[in-house]
Predict the structure of Histidine phosphatase superfamily, clade-1.
Amino acid sequence: MEPKTQKVVIMRHGDRIDNFEPLWTEKAARPWDPPLVHDGKVRAFCTGKKFSNNLGFRFDRVFVSPFLRCLQTASEVVHAVCAVGDIDHTVHMSSADGVVIDPTKIKVSVEYGLCEMLNKRAIRAQNAPKDGDFAFTIPKCEEVLPEGTVDSSVERVYEEMPKWEESIEDARDRYKNIIKTLADKYPTENLLLVTHGEGVGVSVTAYTPDHLTVIEVNYCAYSTLQRTVSCEENGSITHGEFEYCTDQGYTGILTMPSTTAADEIIKEPEPPTP
């Protein structure tokens, strides 16, 4: 059979509420799990439209971190890429604007391995759960995703959340592992992985020959990896190494040649001063 190209897009979530409303965490029951602001949902939906118009391929599956900001981001992207009928691309909109979708176009699953780094460098210490239990359940997470798109039959790579407080190195290894493991598990499918800033950063540094240093990952920024996959007549599958696509135009990721700064972390920005 002719070799095919597998594409994997790794995307950061949209604009989170605690970076725009600093007092939100003081009243929140789950201060470690902020939702998106409205503009974040619009940004995510518009990124989904960009995927449909500019990527040149469609997603078969979406895997998403259990954090609410990622679930909501995935929902907006799915609404955009599965929309029925024409969408006015000049209007900034979100799924709340009555977008009708065909849920059979894509399959969505929650994956703990795509979660935020569970340490104080990524989650503000005062917002983390005191007992280290982030209290995520798969059914509750799936409620946020568009009806009819959820594939609950998928066996997760990480059956549990990482333990608080994981090291930066362990988290980076986790992101690299989850990208490759999911791709190997579905080698003939194109994937969208909705995760956090550090996960997007790892997808760049780990899969560029010169190991570019990632300086900044904006909201809804994304990277694209690709590799050649061959399906043999005996049913076996072989694949090449992933390459980082540099021809996607502006993707919201700022990089520089690798330096001693390569050990810096892509962390969530601090909220504005009241």
Observations:
- The radius of gyration is 18 Å.
- Residues 7-197 form a domain with the Rossmann fold fold (CATH 3.40.50.1240).
- DSSP finds six helices and nine strands in the chain.
